[in-house]
User: Which sequence fits this backbone?
């Protein structure tokens, strides 16, 4: 009944087709299409209430979509029980059975499947060894730390040999140190088992660090589904750029068209920025993103904003030392924040102080254009 | 606090124990230290019969109240979604307790009697042709009254411990492929055992110590340990009644100890 091998990397491909989920009058998920390749580490990323957990629960079979289909390995699984889907879910609170030892917790799902006692005990111990918890086999969950409980929960989910593992904010209950450690552990286990991991999180860096595929969500919609690198370097919408962070997002209405550039009105100031070959119409919405670490800071009194191409002027409003780099926040003429991340060596060669007038500029090739439709929204 | 316990709990208990060793000749009670009351108690075949009958009631009532209590709690906790409905239905369970025990018990009499509502309804519906005799003044009536009076003592503690079960445990079990029955047996029952133990203690001690329900509902056809004691007291035979009370206290204490041995209530409550 269960596929015995983990080798096939195509196992656990998931497809959502026009999936909508309503709870009474509220729409949690709006007409979503998504394809996740088998064996991928996929992170669903978004603020709380964006519908990411609902999607996870619909893949798991703990919720049914109001509309649309959920396919696992090209088979429609809507209405099927979790067991029939070959999925396993790891709960945010881990949901370990408090009255059972770790070994019995891990063996529980085998017991349900009628595996004989000796065999299931042995397989549970094997699985505990794989998550490096074998010596804790006879402890109760309450006697373990958060990280250890999570390993047990992971072992319990994996023992049934699922093709998809669904993780609901698995790292949110851990402290910073353990979170980094378990993050590595999750990735190691996913690679080892070669199955799909769908991981719900609201932490950007967690998603970037782990995922082959990041799905950024907002208000029940998918804003962007892409590789981690693309989501970070080439956010499609201002929302994604702001949510992932590390970017300066500038949006506004086009005032003037020049050769290879446009003058935009951001609401509080005017900016002259590079534009794509086909220039946007006058009055159209236009948005760009520039990475904070690709901006150069000029110490001299900056040129007034709007007159120089790809540059912004303002006053340093905050400095944050981050070790190898500094986060310099500039308040521009329009009262908006613009952030420059500068390497520590560059900064300390000619430091600036809060209150200094500076300007920041960037090369035209560093400009990333955001999709016009998303900017006007 | 200790003083209150000593005054209202310790002293009366000592008096009862002391009385159980007093000498009595049918009319007068004299301070003494004799084993005669206990010898009489253990020598009598009636004692064993009374205990067996009382244990029989306790066992049947325990099983029925446990089944009802568990089912009602399970329904309230896991099937009633809104908290408002949950509390509403829970309060509904307690409504009968707004009247006195005696009234609730006695109101069964016109219902179950030979010409009672139940018999008339059965005959009216053509199910029976003559009144059922076993309904009232029988063991059946005693058990009905006990169950009615004591089920709430089972519901409240079980509801309480069930309500504290994390819902995600049920979901995790279902995710792993458990059926509803297995979830109840392997997850809900073990995690409700504190409530089950407390409820069992309430029900068993209440039945073991009862004399009034047996007396009224059996029409004095049945007897219980406490009923025999009450008869002795009515006849001013205090020392044998005291000896009987001491024995009952020991037996009930042993039963409670046995329940607590199976379920470590203190550990579970601290969980």
Assistant:
């Amino acid at each position: 009944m269960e596929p015995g091998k983990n080798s096939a990397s195509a196992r656990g491909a998931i497809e959502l087709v026009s999936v909508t989920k309503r709870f009474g009058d509220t729409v949690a998920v709006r007409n979503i299409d998504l394809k996740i390749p088998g064996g991928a580490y996929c992170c669903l990323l978004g603020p709380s209430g964006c519908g990411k957990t609902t999607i996870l629960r619909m893949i798991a079979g703990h919720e049914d979509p109001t509309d649309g289909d959920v396919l696992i390995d090209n088979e429609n699984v809507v209405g099927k029980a979790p067991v029939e889907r070959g999925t396993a879910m790891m709960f945010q609170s881990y949901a370990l059975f408090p009255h059972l030892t770790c070994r019995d917790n891990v063996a529980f799902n085998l017991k349900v499947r009628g595996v004989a006692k000796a065999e299931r005990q042995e397989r549970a111990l094997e699985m505990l060894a794989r998550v490096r918890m074998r010596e804790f086999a006879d402890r109760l969950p309450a006697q373990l730390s958060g990280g250890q409980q999570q390993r047990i929960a992971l072992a319990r989910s994996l023992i049934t040999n699922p093709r998809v593992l669904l993780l609901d904010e698995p790292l949110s209950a851990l402290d910073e140190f353990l979170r980094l450690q378990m993050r590595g552990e999750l990735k190691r286990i996913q690679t080892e088992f070669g199955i799909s991991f769908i991981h719900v999180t609201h932490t950007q860096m967690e998603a970037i660090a782990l995922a082959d595929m990041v799905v950024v969500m907002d208000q029940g919609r998918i804003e962007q589904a892409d590789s981690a690198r693309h989501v970070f370097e080439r956010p499609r919408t201002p929302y994604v750029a702001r949510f992932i962070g590390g970017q300066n997002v500038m949006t506004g209405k086009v005032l003037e068209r020049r050769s290879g550039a446009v003058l935009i009105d951001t609401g509080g100031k005017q900016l002259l920025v590079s534009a794509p070959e086909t220039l946007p119409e006058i009055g159209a919405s236009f948005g760009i993103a520039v990475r904070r670490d690709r901006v150069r800071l000029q110490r001299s009194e900056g040129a007034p904003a709007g007159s120089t191409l790809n540059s912004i002027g303002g006053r340093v409003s905050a400095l944050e030392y981050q070790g190898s780099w500094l986060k310099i926040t500039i308040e521009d003429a329009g009262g908006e924040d613009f952030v420059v991340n500068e390497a520590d060596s560059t900064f300390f060669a000619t430091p600036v102080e809060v209150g200094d007038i500076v300007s920041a500029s960037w090369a035209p090739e560093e400009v990333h254009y955001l999709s016009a439709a998303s900017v006007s929204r | 606090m200790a003083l209150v316990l000593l005054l209202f709990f310790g002293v009366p208990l000592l008096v009862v124990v002391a009385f159980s060793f007093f000498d009595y000749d049918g009319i007068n009670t004299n301070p003494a230290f004799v084993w005669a009351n206990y010898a009489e108690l253990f020598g009598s075949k009636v004692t064993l019969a009374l205990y067996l009958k009382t244990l029989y009631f306790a066992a049947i009532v325990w099983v029925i109240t446990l089944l009802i209590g568990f089912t009602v709690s399970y329904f309230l906790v896991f099937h009633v979604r809104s908290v408002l409905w949950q509390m509403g239905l829970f309060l509904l369970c307690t409504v009968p307790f707004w009247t006195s025990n005696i009234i609730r018990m006695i109101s069964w009499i016109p219902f179950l009697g030979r010409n009672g509502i139940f018999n008339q309804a059965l005959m009216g519906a053509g199910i029976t042709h003559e009144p059922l005799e076993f309904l009232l003044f029988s063991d059946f009536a005693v058990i009905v009254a006990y169950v009615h009076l004591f089920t709430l003592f089972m519901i409240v503690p079980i509801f309480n411990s069930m309500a504290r079960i994390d819902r995600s445990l049920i979901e995790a079990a279902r995710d792993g492929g458990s059926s509803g029955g297995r979830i109840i047996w392997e997850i809900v029952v073990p995690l409700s055992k504190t409530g089950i133990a407390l409820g069992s203690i309430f029900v068993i001690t209440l039945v073991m110590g009862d004399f009034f329900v047996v007396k009224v509902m059996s029409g004095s056809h049945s007897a219980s340990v406490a009923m025999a004691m009450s008869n002795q007291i009515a006849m001013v035979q205090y020392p044998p009644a005291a000896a009987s009370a001491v024995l009952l206290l020991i037996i009930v204490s042993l039963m409670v100890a046995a329940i607590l041995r199976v379920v470590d209530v203190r550990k579970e409550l601290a969980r």
